[in-house]
Amino acid sequence: MNSNSITERISRLQDYLASQYVDFDRKKTTDRLLSLYSDFSKLKILNNYGYDANVNYWRAVILDCNLHGYLTSKYYGCFIDKNELGDLFHRPGKGKPLSLDYVLQDMIEKTYDLMTQKEYEKQYPIQAHSPSSSTLTWLQWIYYIPYRWIIPETPSHSYVVLPTVQEYTKMITQKHYSKPLCSSLDNLFTFLEFRDEYSTILCHQETIVRLSDVDLWIILRYLHHCYGVAIADTSQAFGAASTVIKFPDRNQAVKVAADITDNDKAIVNLKTACSALHQQVEGLQAKSEEFLRLTREHNAKNQKPQAVYMLRKKRHIEEILERRFKTLETMETILLKIETSQNDLQVVEAFNMGANTLRSLLSGKDMVAETMDKLKDTLEDQHAIEQAMAVGNEEISNQAAGITNEDLENELDAIITADSTPSTKEAVSLTQPINTESELLRLQNVLSSLSHPSNRIKMKELA
């Protein structure tokens, strides 16, 4: 939603204000609006109540418009720019508000709603470090060394809107924990996965606010500091370092910060490698299609050597593509097995917890033994059922074992040939015109050949 055009941003903001606030109606001007747009700084001495009322009104408007994406800086959703704030609130016939500087000063020094990026990073630091090294990691280098060439530093007249960050953070955590988490790996993200999942915020009337990377890092700092989300860097995978983001388990009774282990880093490295392989596969497929197109063009121009050359390049690309697919299949299979093993471990832990609870609840030893025997019988019955299902599946697999890859490829070739062959329409048999005279003669012969009923039968019928 964030647009860089100042005209569009002004128009969108004014439309939102007119729809939500009576005092900002486009057709009429209220006394309250005149007071808001005037220089009310002197009221601080003459009428402190009136001054606070105007400041609080403006504060509520600024926070509300920023939260819903109608009052942001040029590139970032969680920021407002002090230098362009007056232009965004400009109204025809009224001009700009004359006391916004006092409102911003109050939000910075009194309510602490606004702070610069440096102040925010100092208040919400990221404790990212490598356990095996005392040197600064690349993530610390970005955030603790002044030369920030990856995550840019915003100018001093841009301010982080803390209530917006808090609300977005709450929305992200609610969205994350409202999903059915199938395994502990669901709490693990790379930064690219986190951006794909949470870079869009649904606000007023299904308005979508798109968050930049800077906005996401601002939110991650708050998640890390207040919600226990762990952040760490990993070693390079496919030539690029990646960031590990891990949410705490939601089943914990007490809030405990997430801990990123070496296994988590290895899993993230696998995910990063799979992502890189997917990009390589897409690029190779595009090249293969391009060589096929050039082959057809050269063939249409009767340039057989060029067509054969392009076809040979296409086959080389396809060989590389096949190897990439095998590697990708292997790595994704490893990820799937890791996730499955995590789920099995959770099942075992739940069973052990249930057994321990059962022993503690049942005080009598005989009763415990009896209950455990019943549980054992139930498990044996379940095992028998599973064995029967396994035998059935094995029989089905044996029946399908006679099908070879060659048979499947031949069938695929037949399908492709059938698709490429122009379909012939079935001949529709039309009814021939009826010769009326010959048909009447045929009916007359048929009727004359029938035996007429006797007069006796007719008399009976009449009687």
What does this structure look like?
InterPro entries: Snf7_fam (IPR005024). One of its GO terms (biological process) is vesicle budding from membrane. This is Charged multivesicular body protein 7. With 463 residues, this protein is mainly alpha-helical. The protein folds into 2 domains: 6-260, no CATH class; 274-371. The chain has 17 helices and 8 strands. The protein has helices at residues 6-20, 31-37, 43-46, 48-67, 85-88, 100-109, 117-123, 138-144, 162-178, 191-198, 213-226, 262-300, 304-361, 365-400, 405-420, 436-449, 455-462, and strands at 79-81, 114-115, 158-161, 188-190, 200-202, 208-210, 230-233, 243-246. The strands form 3 sheets. The chain has a 3-stranded antiparallel β-sheet. Strands 4-8-7 form a 3-stranded antiparallel β-sheet, sandwiched between helices. It starts with 5 loop residues before the first helix and ends with a helix. Residues 129-136, 141-149, 425-431 and 453-463 have low confidence and may be disordered.
Q: Roughly how many Å is the radius of gyration?
A: 38 Å
The major β-sheet equals: 3 strands, antiparallel
The residue ranges in which pLDDT falls below 50 over 5 or more consecutive positions are 129-136, 141-149, 425-431, 453-463
What is the percentage of strand-forming residues?
A: 5-15%
Domains counted in the coordinates: how many? 2
